[in-house]
Structures are given as C-alpha cells and as structure tokens.
Amino acid sequence: MKNLHLIIDRNTARSKQAVSQYLTTGLVSATAALVLSLNTYAAMDESHDMKKIGHDMSPMSMQGGSAPDDARDPDAYSGGYTLDSAPYAITGQDKLSLADEHSRWFVSFDRLEYAYSKDNERLNYDGRLVWGRDYNKAILTSEGKVDNSKLREASTELLWSHAVDTFWDGQIGVRYDSGDEKDQTWLTAGFQGLAPYWFEIDAKASASTEGQTALDIEAEYELLLTQRLILQPRLEMSIYGKDDAERGIASGFSSLATGLRLRYEFSRQFAPYVGVEWESKLGDTRELIKVEDGETEETLWLAGIRFWF
C-alpha cells in the first residue's frame, strides 16, 4: 500500500511539472505574439502618419516658415561666381584641369630693411625670383648688405629646385659671392622646406672653385599673435671647412645671426615690420677679426617691409 501511494505521488508531481511547463511555454508564445502584433501596428501607424505629413506639408508648416524673397539660391555658386566668371578665374588655355600643368613666376622679398646700430647703418636685402611648376622650378636668389651706397657683401644663387616630398624641395645650382672681399664661385646643393612643428629650414652645402667648403643653415618660425600680427624668430649660421685668412674666415663655426621681426600683414602680399638682430663671429674666425681690430659682434635695430608679387 505504501508503494502504491509513492507511485501516485510521483505521477502527480510529473503531471504538475508537465502542466507547469505547458503553461510557461504558452505564456511565452502569447507574449511574443502580442509584442509582434504591437510592433506591426506601430509601424503601420507611423507609415500612415508620414504619408499624411507628406500630403499636408506646406511652406508655412515647415519650421521657421518660408525663405525670404531675396534669399540666395543654396544650389547656386556663392555670390553668383562660377568657375568661368570670378575675379581670379582662369579661362582659355590657361584653365587648369590637372596639377603641375602650367609654369608660373613670382618675385618676393622676405627682407628689405634698414639696419641701425651705434656704429653702423646699412641696408639689408634678401629676395628671389621663382619660375616653374609645382614639382620643378628655377630660383634666382640674391642676398646682401649695402653700406653708404656701396655693396659690402652679396651672395647670388641660381638653383634648380625639385619637390622630393610633400613639404621638401631638393636644390642644386651655383652661387657667386662678391663685395669687399675677393669674388668666389661655388657649387651648392641642399634642401628647403617645412620641418615638424612648422619650422622653415634652408640648408645648403657648398664647395668653391678654390677648394673651400661651407655649410649654411637658416631657420625661421612664424608665431601668429593674431591673423595679421606675426612674430618671426630667425637664426642663420655658417660653418667652413678650412681657413681662409684672405677673407677673414677660419675653419669650423664662423658666424651666427639671430633676431626677431614683428610684422603686420595689411595683405598677404605686403607687410611692414620692425625688429632686432644680433650678429657675432665665432671660434677662430672671431680671433682673426680681433687681430685686424674689426667688429666681432653687433646688435642692429631693424625696420623694413616684406612683399611679393
């Protein structure tokens, strides 16, 4: 009898478990069906509302109302300009369709300045003429100092420049030095470009017809105080390979010039500036000049203009 009751209890438990599983499965199925039905109804209702909005939309129903009568057409070119009609539009055969297609030229003077110290006054200049395309161009540079209407020191270069990277040009050519000292001709090669952190670098190694060698390095940085007011630190240094007593040059580090120029750009093509520059002879060159009772260092106050066209 005891065994009979045990069998009945087991059967009852199994039945309850089966009923519970059946009810749970049915409840889950019913819930899923209800959610699916609600989503379908919501989608149909949204579609109906969008169709209604599409039929009923008018300019007055849009946010902000209709555009004013004198509003510019948003699909037209700005100010009525087109690719063929604008102040600087290029038409005809000169019209560009690809990069590096036409040769261009410009003249620039990075420095044209009056320099004053307690013992000296002079005019400094540094200009260039560039002709060519983006990748290959010819460059004629001229840099010098004029004192009492006399050319004291000048260096002229004729270079071929080729773009070797996005921000760098490789350059090779000839250089001619003249002035108070004996004239000298050089073969020169180097690179010019924009280094990381926006430093402008110009470095050239040169070999003269008389066996002298030299390395000239220039570095500039432009700090924008405003969009038009710009402070430019500048450094220039020369290193020579051997002594040249006739020109007052010794091997090693020979000269250093560093300064600040503050310019105001009335336009990108025209900017007057003021500044100060310190020049010094270095190493054994300094000692050679001391023997001749010459000036080994000098502080100059500057006023000039920077322009291009």
Instruction: Compute the average pLDDT.
Output: 82
Total strands: 13
Identify the strand order in the major beta sheet.
1-2-3-4-5-6-7-8-10-11-12-13
* Biggest sheet details: 12 strands, antiparallel, barrel
Broad shape? elongated
Q: What is the succession of H and E elements?
A: HEEEEEEEEEEEEHE
Q: Mind explaining what this structure looks like?
A:
The protein has 309 residues and is α+β, with helices and mostly antiparallel strands. It contains two helices and 13 strands. The chain has helices at residues 2-56, 283-291; strands at residues 104-116, 121-132, 136-147, 150-165, 168-179, 184-195, 199-208, 213-221, 223-224, 229-240, 252-264, 270-281, 297-308. The chain has a twelve-stranded antiparallel barrel. It is elongated and about 85 Å long.
